[in-house]
Amino acid sequence: MTGSLFKGNFWTSDILGTIGYDSIIQHLNNGRKNCKEFEDFLKERASIEERYGKDLLSLARKKPCGQSETNTLKRALEVFKQQVDSVAQSHIHLAQTLREEARKMEEFREKQKSQQKKTELIMDAAHKQKSVQFKKTMEAKKNYEQKCRDKDEAEQAVHRNANMANPKQQEKLFVKLATSKTAVEDSDKVYMLHINTLDRVRNEWQSEHIKACEVFETQECERINFFRNALWLHMNQLSKQCVISDEMYEEVRKSLEMCSIEKDIEYFVNQRRTGQTPPAPIMYENFYCPQKNAAPPGKATGPNSARRGPLPNPKSLPDDPDYSLLDNNYSLIYQ
What's the CA gap between 209 and 220, in Å, rounded? Predict the structure, then answer.
């Protein structure tokens, strides 16, 4: 894009005025300042990303997170830690990328500063030459006008003394008039010479001003385009970081989908089972009759007691030599 707006809108009617040129220079300086601010922003963002990445990396590698889990959930947690580690690494890499973008912005800014300085030197010289020549021209004009007034006074003196009887006095007046006319002619030539020189200097300055405006406008177009693209690229980098992080988190989600509550329960049972038989009931033991065991009401006295019937009463056999009856009780008589 060639400059076409700057050169037509930054003039001033004052030949020594530089308000239009100064306005452009101030705008360019502000533009570089804006680039510097964005450059500093990128550097600070890079520091934030680096700190975050390192802190996240330390968290993923040093902080326990479900370390006693087993089977499918354990594998999901391992994937989780791995992906968090990868996300941390990606943020550290992003920090390096942002610093590189800040470096590019700095190089562009310094390049524009150098280009602007070259044009400013040419314009400063043109402004100085124009100012010096204008001053010389005004001095020549002042001298010329004074010589004209001197000539007019000499002419008036000659007319006033036209009838003077003293010839010598009249001769002096005529000599002064002739001298003043010569001085006017000489000062007029000098004045015209300075006017012509000033016009040439003014044309040269005007030409340089137009060139400078075109250079500055082109430079400003490049700066806006570069700044815009840098900001666009920065947004793309941040979006890419979000995509990378989401892809890594998706791997964690996939591993979580593979988790099985049933399998993890079965795995725990198979690895840590202790037996399938519960403890037997604690039986009642009579302190005075250890051989007689009695169970609490409603409790069985042994593993097979539930299948046994009541104890049978011994038969009363009077003729049986092994038994004798005494007070309606049976007693065993040993032979």
Answer: 16
Place of tokens 């006074």: 153
Phi, psi of 291 (to 5 degrees): -75, -20
329 backbone dihedrals φ, ψ, rounded to 5°: -120, 150
Taking a C-beta distance cutoff of 8 angstroms, is the pair 87, 56 a contact?
Answer: yes
Distances (CA, A) of 274 to 83, 100, 268, 271: 37, 62, 11, 9
Give pLDDT tens digits for 148-180: 999 999 888 888 877 765 777 878 888 888 999
Measured between alpha carbons, how far is 308 from 38 in angstroms, rounded to an integer? 97
Check: CB of residue 143 under 8 Å from CB of residue 192: no
Q: How many residues are present in the chain? A: 335
259 token code pair: 């988790």
Tokens of 214: 């075109």
Query: What crossing angle do the helices spanning 261-272 and 71-160 adopt, rounded to 10°?
Result: 130
- Determine contact, residues 24/138, Cβ cutoff 8 Å: no
- pLDDT tens digits for 15-72? 999 999 999 999 999 999 999 999 999 999 999 999 999 999 999 999 998 888 989 9
Q: Rounded to an integer, what distance in angstroms lies between the CA atom of residue 302 and that of residue 283?
A: 8
Q: CA 239 to CA 58: how far, in whole Å?
A: 24
